[in-house]
Structure formats: C-alpha cells, structure tokens
Amino acid sequence: MQTEHQDLKKEFPQLAARMDVLQQSNAHFAKAFDEFNALTAEIEHIERNDAATGESVLEQMKKRRLALKDEIYQIASA
C-alpha cells in the first residue's frame, strides 16, 4: 500500500520557519526531525519497491514515525 509522502514543513506550514530555527538550535529537535525523515524515506522505499519486510516491522516503523511527528509538532508549537 503506497502512502503519500510526509513532509512536515508542508503539512505544518505555519511552523516551517520555527522548525528551521529549531533544527539549528535544538539538538533533540534536530535528531527527532532527522529520524522522522529517515523513517519516511525507508517506509516509502519499502512501499514503492514491495521490499521484503514483515508487516509488523512496517507497522512498528509507522508507529515510531507517528510518535516522532507528534513530538516534533509539540516542540515546534510550544
């Protein structure tokens, strides 16, 4: 099942400038942001290429990405 690419700055345009600042000034935020993007790329690769991975592994990756998205949003909107 192919899903739409998740780009946090496009999804939350009102927070894009704040995310840019936080990426430079907050190591924890930068790490979470980078991990989110890496997971997104890996998930998209698996879905695009029907790569051999267990459904539970993919589901765990998506749950982790969602948790990171929530964390990033909370930090950026604080």
Indicate the topology.
Blueprint lengths: L7 H4 L4 H10 L1 H23 L5 H23 L1
Helix pairs in contact: 2-3, 3-4
Beta-strand content bin: under 5%
Tally of DSSP β-strands: 0
Helices and strands: which structural class? Answer: mainly alpha
**What's the multimeric state?**
single chain
Low-confidence stretches: none
Give the radius of gyration.
13 Å
How many structural domains in the coordinates?
A: 1
Most strands sheet: none
Q: How many helical elements?
A: 4
Mean pLDDT value: 91
Indicate the overall shape.
elongated
Helix content: over 70%
Spatial gap, N to C terminus: 34 Å
Q: What are the secondary-structure elements, in order, as H or E?
A: HHHH
What this model shows, in words?
With 78 residues, the protein is mainly α. The chain is built from four helices and no strands. It is elongated and about 40 Å long. The relative contact order is 0.19.
What's this entry about, in short?
This is DUF465 domain-containing protein. With 78 residues, this protein is mostly helical.
Task: Supply the key terms.
77% helix, DUF465, 4 helices, 78 residues, mainly alpha, DUF465_sf
